[in-house]
Amino acid sequence: MTVEVDNDEVRTIEAEAVPTRFARGWHCLGLSEKFKDGKPHTVRAFGQKLVVFQSGDGKLNVLDAYCRHMGGDLSQGTIKGNEIACPFHDWRWGGDGRCTEIPYSRRVPRRARTAAWPTLDQDGMLFLWNDPEGNPPPAEVTIPRIEGATSDGWTDWVWNETVVHTNCREVIDNVVDMAHFFYVHNSFPTFFKNVFEGHVATQYMNGTARADMTQHAKDGALKMLGNTSVASYYGPSFMIDDLTYHYEGMDVQAVLLNCHYPIDANSFVLHSGIIVERSEKFPGEAADEMARTMSKYILSGFNQDVEIWRNKTRIDNPLLCEEDGPVYQLRRWYEQFYVDVADVTPEMVERFEFELDTSRPIEAWKKEVEQNLARRAAEGQPA
User: Fold this and answer.
1) pTM for this structure?
2) Which end of the chain is more exposed for a tag (fewer CB within 10 A), N or C?
């Protein structure tokens, strides 16, 4: 390893205040069925309190939680037909934000409107569109359908939710951060590439199993060989990962979701969901059990990230080495969601590709794995 020395100047950490503006785009609030129980639900997001309710026509709606009449909390109200009724004076609010009825009044004031968010109920999930400029979602900015979701040939979603107390940019940085997969998640990446274009940021990663981190396999147990991952963020907060786990003699196909929505500038709700394809070797309950096992493993990985985020500082000028990913280019892509549409520059959305040279990391990580195995053998642990 070569150490380059220019001068004795100390590198300072630069960090501007976290943005108080929230990202433009689709955000997943969780599984749709959670909100389809005939009750209004409180969601704290985008620095405010929202109410989610299913109207009588089956549609899921999201409104500002506070009634524009006298400030009553609609999330404590009652669903009546296609409207949410305020618990204070029974004003009825439709999913479009219009007050449709005041039972004790002859007429509804013409200005009786409240904030309503566009929603999308798709593949078993509820999405909300946020735009500080108040524009509807453009036709080309979509969440793609997920093959296998709600299909009999795949398992149901296994879902996890946790609150993280930091700014959500920390999540996005992982898109380009290959090295942390080895040191934080005990993975062994062998191929790593990023492609950013438009509102989509993709990470291609292949990996091999780490012999020093696998438990001693029982007789007849499947031996993990590695994995192949194609993970894409569609907008600022929703990632779909087409994930294949390679075992001796077979592959297991899965779709992993990593998504979040901001509570405020310094906290967010982190969701993960996974489905597994049923197969001849993993039919019925066997596939369901595999999905639950994978979910526990993935959740432990998220918890490792959360522990890092909890203790690190925000840094706008990270000091990078040659084998780090395109952090600055990713953040430039991410910035498009925090400015007005008119201020989105070509550099934020034009196609960018970067394949990381993995030769040096692989060389160093192989040595570390071998050292760990030698230590394990010296301590009398099984290989």
Assistant:
1) 0.93
2) N
